[in-house]
């Protein structure tokens, strides 16, 4: 049996992989293979598949024997293509080693460059005298990177060695280090390695390579990677691939460079090629922020200079764009980026290196972008005919919509704030908080509920938890593509990077800007859209939506089948939700109205009253308020359905608790405080969520149901008389038995009929129930005989199905998630396998009993994208969520419609099958071609051998003669 294939080659003559193989090759590996297939110049290399990572961990961090064979075989292929040999003293092949999971993971291993270097192979790099410095610099960079990433030596040891050397010789800039200096540095690095690890730095290139491969696989389980996976919901089982690729050099002189670029602006989405590069530099120099990167395009360069107050003369001489510096290479790069965008139909994030004016592409991937850019790019690409509206809707995530709802600075408040300095507008949005200088403090302060801005010289993957915790990130160094900028954009967090105007002392915990000194705990505000850093606290507000956003939302509305309602208890919330596109109110919790102003006193009176008369008197004080509220809400909704739920929570939630309140109630009710206290005690329940609440209130105190119905129907009649359309729906909570519903329905219908008679007008309305008690779900057919609609109260349904208290479950739920018992919080995202069954059963039985029954959801899950997908599949008609989640729900519902579209699924399956068939056909063709050419050359060799060999001819003649003799002999005999 053939050994399992773990290693896939890519190179100028094509690749063994392609872009569809992300699960096997990781994102980076699959795209490198694809670029080779597209005949884009990529240095040859190979990818060790993600399956190997899984095998590695299953085998207690050991490899199967075939891996070494496959690595050697592919190494030979790279050598053949690049015309160099790994470990060769004259003409050494150097390698880069990078990790690459199926989705980009900044928490994982950093790149290792120049692998294969030692003091022997180094000589092979020196083709001319001027290369000597480059070669020694490459070696010291390699030792530093390898020592840090593979051997686990803290970077500061190497940094310290550089600083001491620079101080010793009075060197300011790294570029001033001479060959002798670099040789001295290499010697000190060797000492550091020995001191820190007890081992010598490995000089054998093969040993270096396997060390690097181990480090990549090892990094899959490092803490940063685990945290990042958890944060993004990535599975531990994916594994990472390892990409081993021939090195090309951007630091071999002034005709070399390296850069990163986005095919469109990742911050705004504008259709402008956007990139940064550095002349005579290696990849990590661009992102490390040690040198100021230059702009790729002339236009970008001029804009950059204007923002930094740099004259045109200085710009052109010191910071020319690539477009000016190497016009032919620039043109080539433009052709490639356009080709890539057309091919991938998405904005690409590319990395490139120019070695002696030859352009090499090192990476392409779908670029991370801000939420605003995601919307703009998706809409623009539809307009450009690159993608369909369905694709556009899938390109923007519900989380990104959430980010768009994030605050911006209030203009007036910002105007009066003092501008400290300006940095780069790395990730838009506004943030205000107290200064902290490290990730741990940001997390600790957040745990105490404090707002912070994380200030760093530059960030690294170790800072991720702090970046999550802070309201914004401010860095002293780094460009628009620095770690801080890229990660913040991905998180939707505001970030100002490269703030050279600030003197940041991370150790001393101070920032100096001219005369101003800020310390830990001081308030600052940052504007990630303009790069401004402001003193003090600046007020924020939610942004207005632009045309692209409206367009995308329109497409979503046309595509979705689920309607989106909102949970709103006030006219203000109702108005906000309508602006966000709500198509009705799915839940108006009437108890929230009971807390307003003085009403609570009447509510308390009603609860504490001794008899029906006393209760009715108290309710009479409330009815006017309720009617006014209902009037305003119904008016705001202009004929859209408004579901009003009857009183739901346990009564004692409304009772006075403070001595002052008790005294006040005693006075109002003309009794002693003792009596009030006794009544409060009597109302106490051991398990209130399973006690006297929901419809049990309206059954034991029918006058409450009567009052609420009357208030709503009176408001509806009044508006109807005014010519305003209304559509009320009265909802009975916590029904588990059809008789509960029937009892309440009777009161509702009788009360409504009375009001209609009094007002001389009829208004259409529905009476339905919440399905939030498991028994209610299971007997949904019985209930649907009477109820005109169901609204799933998934908060209570989850509580009662799982037996987790919705108020106290946080005490164990996060441990359950950490320990893998639960995948996610079931109060946030519906437990599809358990609670979901109750929803499915109730929907099915409800529809069977009443085919036109209205079905919706009003629990918190109504605003959760994964739950919305589930409700779509259950065939519900609407979800209802808080006003600020309405736009998220609109997009999620459209995505649910697209993702569950059978026609689309079939098309996708056919496309996948086609691409697999194409790959197989290509493989078969290549194998056949190979076999044919081998057979052809074999035949040719045989013919030549036959023609050229006298001996053979004689032999053949002899054999023929012998054969004939034997034949004759046989004939004779
Ligand atoms: C529910 O239980 O899901 C619901 C919406 O009602 P409440 O949260 O008010 O109990
Ligand atoms: Mg409920």
Notes on the protein architecture:
The protein has 973 residues and is of the alpha/beta class. The protein contains 39 helices and 34 strands. The strands form seven sheets. The chain has an eight-stranded mixed beta sheet with strand order 15-25-24-17-18-19-20-16. Strands 27-28-29-30-31-32-33-34 form an eight-stranded parallel β-barrel, surrounded by seven helices. The chain has a six-stranded antiparallel beta sheet with strand order 2-1-3-8-6-7, with helices on both faces. Strand 21 and strand 22 (510-513) form a beta hairpin. Helix 16 packs across helix 22 and helix 23 runs parallel beside helix 25. The chain is globular and about 125 Å long. The protein starts with 6 loop residues before the first strand and ends with a helix. It binds phosphoenolpyruvate (PEP) and magnesium ion. Magnesium ion (MG) is lined by residues 772, 793, 795-796.
């Amino acid at each position: 049996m053939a050994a399992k294939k773990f290693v896939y080659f890519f190179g100028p003559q094509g690749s063994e992989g392609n872009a569809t193989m992300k699960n096997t090759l990781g994102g980076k590996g699959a795209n490198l293979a694809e670029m080779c297939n597209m005949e884009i110049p990529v240095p040859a290399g190979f990818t060790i598949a993600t399956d190997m990572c899984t095998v590695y961990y299953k085998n207690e961090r050991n490899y199967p024997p075939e891996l070494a064979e496959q690595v050697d075989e592919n190494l030979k292929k790279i050598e053949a293509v690049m015309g160099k040999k790994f470990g060769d003293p004259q003409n050494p092949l150097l390698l880069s080693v990078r990790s690459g999971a199926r989705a980009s993971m900044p928490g994982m291993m950093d790149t290792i460059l120049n692998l294969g270097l030692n003091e022997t192979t180094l000589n092979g790099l020196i083709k001319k005298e001027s290369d000597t410095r480059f070669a020694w610099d490459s070696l010291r960079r390699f030792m530093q990177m390898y020592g840090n990433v593979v051997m686990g030596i803290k970077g500061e040891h190497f940094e310290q060695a550089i600083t001491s050397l620079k101080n010793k010789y009075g060197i300011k800039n790294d570029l001033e280090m001479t060959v002798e200096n670099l040789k001295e540095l290499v010697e000190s690095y060797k000492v550091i390695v020995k001191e820190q690890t007890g081992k010598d730095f490995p000089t054998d290139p093969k040993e270096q390579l396997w060390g690097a491969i181990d480090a990549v696989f090892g990094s899959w389980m490092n803490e940063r990677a685990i945290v990042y996976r958890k944060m993004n919901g990535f599975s531990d089982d994916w594994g990472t691939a390892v990409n081993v690729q021939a090195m090309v050099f951007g630091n071999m002189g002034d005709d070399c460079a390296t850069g990163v670029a986005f095919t469109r602006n990742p911050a705004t989405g504008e259709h402008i090629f956007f990139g940064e590069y550095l002349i005579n530099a290696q990849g990590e120099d661009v992102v490390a922020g040690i040198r100021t990167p230059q702009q790729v395009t002339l236009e970008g360069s001029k804009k950059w200079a204007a923002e930094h107050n740099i004259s045109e003369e200085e710009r052109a001489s010191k910071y020319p764009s690539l477009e000016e510096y190497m016009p032919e290479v620039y043109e080539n790069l433009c052709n490639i980026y356009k080709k890539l965008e057309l091919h991938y139909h998405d904005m690409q994030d590319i990395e490139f290196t120019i070695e002696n004016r030859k352009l090499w592409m090192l990476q392409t991937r779908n670029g991370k972008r801000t939420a605003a850019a995601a919307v703009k790019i998706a809409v623009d690409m539809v307009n450009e005919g690159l993608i369909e509206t369905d694709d556009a809707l899938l390109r923007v995530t519900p989380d990104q919509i959430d980010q768009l709802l994030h605050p911006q600075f209030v203009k007036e408040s910002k105007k009066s704030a003092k501008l400290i300095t300006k940095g780069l507008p790395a990730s838009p949005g506004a943030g205000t908080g107290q200064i902290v200088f490290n990730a741990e403090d940001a997390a600790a302060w957040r745990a105490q509920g404090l707002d912070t801005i994380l200030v760093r010289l530059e960030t690294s993957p170790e800072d991720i938890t702090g970046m999550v915790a802070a309201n914004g990130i401010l860095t002293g160094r780094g460009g628009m593509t620095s770690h801080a900028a890229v990660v913040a954009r991905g998180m939707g967090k505001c970030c100002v990077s490269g703030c050279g105007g600030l003197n940041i002392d991370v150790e001393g915990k101070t920032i100096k800007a001219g005369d101003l000194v800020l310390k830990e705990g001081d308030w600052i505000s940052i504007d990630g859209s303009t790069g401004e850093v402001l003193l003090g606290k600046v007020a924020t507000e939610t942004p207005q939506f632009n045309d692209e956003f409206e367009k995308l939302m329109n497409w979503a509305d046309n595509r979705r089948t689920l309607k989106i309602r909102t949970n709103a208890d006030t006219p203000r919330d109702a108005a906000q939700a309508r602006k966000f596109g709500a198509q009705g109110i799915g839940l108006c919790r009437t108890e929230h109205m009971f807390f307003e102003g003085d009403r609570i006193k009447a509510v308390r009176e009603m609860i504490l009253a001794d008899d029906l008369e006393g209760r009715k008197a108290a309710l009479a004080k409330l009815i006017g308020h309720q009617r006014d509220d209902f009037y305003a809400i119904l008016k705001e909704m202009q004929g859209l359905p408004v579901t009003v739920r009857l009183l739901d929570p346990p009564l004692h939630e409304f009772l006075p608790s403070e001595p002052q309140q008790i005294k006040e109630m005693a006075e109002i009710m003309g009794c002693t405080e003792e009596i009030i206290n006794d009544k409060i005690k009597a109302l106490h329940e051991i398990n209130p969520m399973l006690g006297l609440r929901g419809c049990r209130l309206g059954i034991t105190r029918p006058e409450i149901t009567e009052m609420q119905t009357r208030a709503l129907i009176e408001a509806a009649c009044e508006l109807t008389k005014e010519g305003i359309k209304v559509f009320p729906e009265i909802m009975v909570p916590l029904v588990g038995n059809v008789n509960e519903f029937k009892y309440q329905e009777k009161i509702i219908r009788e009360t409504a009929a009375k009001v209609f008679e009094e007002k001389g007008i009829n208004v259409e309305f529905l009476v339905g129930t919440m399905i939030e008690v498991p028994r209610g779900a299971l007997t949904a057919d019985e209930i649907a005989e009477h109820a005109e609609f169901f609204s799933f109260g998934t908060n209570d349904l989850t509580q009662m199905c799982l037996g987790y208290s919705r108020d106290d479950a946080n005490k164990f739920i996060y441990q359950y998630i950490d320990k893998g018992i639960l995948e996610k919080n079931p109060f946030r995202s519906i437990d599809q396998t358990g609670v979901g069954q109750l929803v499915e059963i109730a929907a099915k039985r409800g529809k069977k009993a009443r085919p036109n029954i209205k079905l919706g959801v009003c629990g918190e899950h109504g605003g959760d994208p994964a739950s919305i997908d589930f409700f779509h599949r259950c065939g519900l008609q609407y979800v209802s969520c808080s006003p600020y989640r309405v736009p998220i729900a609109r997009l999620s519902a459209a995505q649910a419609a697209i993702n569950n579209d059978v026609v689309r699924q079939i098309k996708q399956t056919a496309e996948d099958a086609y691409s697999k068939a194409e790959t197989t056909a290509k493989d078969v063709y290549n194998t056949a071609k190979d076999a044919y050419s081998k057979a052809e050359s074999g035949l040719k060799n045989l013919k030549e051998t036959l023609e050229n060999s006298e001996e053979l001819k004689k032999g053949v003649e002899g054999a023929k003669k012998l054969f004939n003799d034997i034949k004759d002999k046989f004939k004779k005999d």
